[in-house]
Amino acid sequence: MGEWKKTQCNFCALSCGLEMEVEDNKIISVRPDPDSPRTHGYCCRKGRTAKHFVDHGDRLKYPLKRVGDRYERISWEQAYSEIAEKANKIIAEHGPRSFAMLGCALGSAQTPYATAKALLAAVGSQYMFNPIGIEFMGNWWSHGKILGDQMHFLEPDDKNNEVIIYWGSNSYVSHQIPDARKICRETSEAPDKMVIVVDPRLSETARMADMHIMPAMGSDSLFLRALISIIIENGWENRDFIYKYVSDWPRAKGWFRDFDIDGALKVCGIPRKQAEAFARILTTKKWGMHQDLGLFFGRHNTMNSYLCVLLTVICGMALVPGGSIVPECVIERGTFCDEHDAKTWRAPVTGRFPVLNVFPVGIIPAEILGDNEDRIRVMFTSMGNPLRSYPDSQKMAEALSSLELLVSIDCAETEVTRIADYVLPGKTTYEGNGDFNAFTLNYPEIVFQSRKKVLDAPGEAKEDVLIMAELTEAMGLIPRLPQYLYTAAEEAARTGDRMKYFVKLLGWTAAGHLKYFDQLATVIALTLGKAYGSAARAISWAGMLTSPICGKGLVTVPVDRKKHPILSRMPMFKDWCEMDAAFELVDAHPEGAIIGYARPDEMLERHIMHKDKKFHLWCEEIDEYIKRITPEKEAEELRLKDGFNMILSAGRHSDEGMNATMRNPATFKYRQPYTLAMNPEDAREMGFAPGETVRVTTRAGNLEIPVEYTWQTARGYCLIPHHFGYKFGGKTYGTHVNLLTSCEDIEELTGNPVWRYTPCRVEAVK
Ligand SMILES: Nc1nc2c(c(=O)[nH]1)N[C@H]1C(S)=C(S)[C@@H](COP(=O)(O)OP(=O)(O)OC[C@H]3O[C@@H](n4cnc5c(=O)[nH]c(N)nc54)[C@H](O)[C@@H]3O)O[C@H]1N2
Ligand SMILES: Nc1nc2c(c(=O)[nH]1)N[C@H]1C(S)=C(S)[C@@H](COP(=O)(O)OP(=O)(O)OC[C@H]3O[C@@H](n4cnc5c(=O)[nH]c(N)nc54)[C@H](O)[C@@H]3O)O[C@H]1N2
Ligand code: SF4
Ligand SMILES: [Mo]
């Protein structure tokens, strides 16, 4: 019998509460944690396979240096000093634009982002690449325009919605909401509730829908324009709400007047009756919408997101109970990047800009391979696999191999660690202590969990968050820290009173170190992290103290006045004492804790960030772009050309994989999941038998793959999951779909990829 320990799954953003049975430092079994205030005893099969993720022969244990075509084990000291020297030399010669960071967070674990951002700021670079620049560019940019901040984005108030809409989202499989399968099923079965799915294929979620709308692949923007036009034609928009909370509706309304609704619906393949019924539901019921990759990776993906937010606002469903809400986030995820601000970088070759501090990933090859002096020459990666998860793996590999310095931190051998100059072993978050997921999905409860250590790491692996901090120190980007900070940190760890340490830290900053303000995460990781034996735990405390909810009256954890008799009464410190108390609560509860409650009545006030406290629906970029979304132009663009005969969904978030993290084939031994999903009618017409290997070719490349017959796929549409093609234990399983995606398949407005609409040719292998 092993010991049961509480933790939190690190595979996806849902981050289910788990219990793990551990014996001799091995996970024996995993079960969902019924005490989790976040997921209440729910988990999926992926979470249960955690042992295959932590315990295998491809784990990285020691720092490695590439010498010719081999890797040699070196010490941490040697790794840090050589990396620092090389990186500093390149940055000194070519400026901060030569330096980029990639990844630094998972959907489920984000402490490394704190010290990675600090390191980036210390160098003076703005180049951060990670999944924000894969999936959220258009959506968060749209929220920036309409709500006034890219960090405040709408999510459905699932528990109180009468209607839940899944638009381009297969939540039943992808689990983007707490207790996903339960919520999908319950809403579908409840007599007074409704599930509406907008998806061109019969997905697992669509099978449960009360209404399934099947737009032609890639026609969402056209459909949204028609849908909003129907609402306006009938005068169904929520005029009271618009009058109170929208600043510029008459101007934006112009986009939907005199629009050819019937022409548009014909191109989308949606009956007018169904569109009207949908429009009536949207304007008479309380609803919320889960948008996901069908929209975010679709054609016109920024326009898709923009129109969805606009639709939510004009129906009066934005920031109201039962409609869409903004879950209060405990940890700051980034800052608004205004692309028109001269301080915001534009990448020199592609001209692209960041959203919420992250650049679109498709630009990486062009920005490395250019012959411009200020091209990217150094890259540090952590918690991200650009050679499997980012577009055009071949081009991406060519680019990364040509860097003057590539440093890769990972817990496992990957395609990137196999070409990096230095490889640094990261702990898994089950071996670290205190990593967290900043995506708070619960509402109105504000739930926070700090992932507790359940295992010892193999070899000399360290937490990614600490590695970033130590690299910063080695690069000489922070001054020598005084002994009193280390002493105060040790006292804090011993006594549990962190506020004295905090006061000392502020004192150090004020005493001539203000310019290191951006580096406080690093200082905390190195001092309190050392005292705690975990930088992640120290960072979760610091993250809570700098929380966007700090001082907003949302936290309900009482402050122990005996512990902080003076500070807790000082206006400036009392809010920090409150967050410190919240940290203590979370720290003491490995299953997570409710630290406060959102205030539904204050939502409009709190989350519209424009100064006039109104939604702004008109915007110049959209005004330019929407003119193209017409039935004529779209019909022409949606026609297959250039010898392509199908549309490929390059990527599918299937049950058998978890992005690039579940590399170990032990996790999918019951099924052969690497297939080209085809509609049986298409497959028969083309003469392919089930299981037959066919060739798929796109503008970027080609691969061979067995056909799977499935009615889940629409005519003309085929899907390949994106979690294959990894070399594991010396053997490669499947082929990776990003051989088929091009860095140029990006949307014009924000540079988000277009991966759910990849024209391809499927043909027999001769
Ligand atoms: N098992 C598993 N779960 C995961 C992940 C995983 O790798 N494996 N990854 C996690 C991550 S990082 C993410 S971002 C989420 C993604 O979660 P989802 O977005 O739910 O995942 P997809 O499988 O891409 O589902 C997108 C849906 O959009 C539909 N679609 C395709 N084209 C169009 C279109 O033109 N219009 C419309 N309206 N719909 C379209 C597809 O048919 C599909 O059903 O999943 C998360 N959960
Ligand atoms: N064509 C195509 N490409 C896609 C998609 C698609 O649908 N189609 N989906 C995209 C989406 S939505 C996303 S979010 C991205 C995600 O893709 P990535 O950003 O690459 O993220 P992950 O696959 O989650 O993890 C990447 C790396 O983190 C490491 N890692 C995981 N857990 C830990 C840990 O605990 N400790 C340490 N030290 N390292 C760890 C893994 O070993 C892995 O190498 O993929 C995208 N790529
Ligand atoms: S993979 Fe996601 S849904 Fe499954 S157990 Fe882990 S966190 Fe939960
Ligand atoms: Mo994602």
Structural overview:
This protein has 27 helices and 26 strands. The chain is of the alpha/beta class and 766 residues long. A hairpin with a 2-residue loop joins strand 2 (17-23) and strand 3. Bound molecules: ligand MGD (2 copies), iron/sulfur cluster (SF4) and molybdenum atom. Molybdenum atom (MO) is lined by residues 131, 135.
Major sheet summary line: 7 strands, mixed
By DSSP, the count of extended strands is: 26
Number of separate helices: 27
Beta fraction: 15-25%
Shape: globular
Percent in helix = 25-40%
| Class by SSE composition | alpha/beta
Strand order of the largest sheet: 5-4-16-15-14-6-7
Ligands, ions, cofactors: ligand MGD, iron/sulfur cluster, molybdenum atom
Query: Rg from C-alpha positions?
Result: 26 Å
| Stretches with pLDDT under 50, minimum 5 residues | none
Distance between the termini: 56 Å
Mean pLDDT: 96
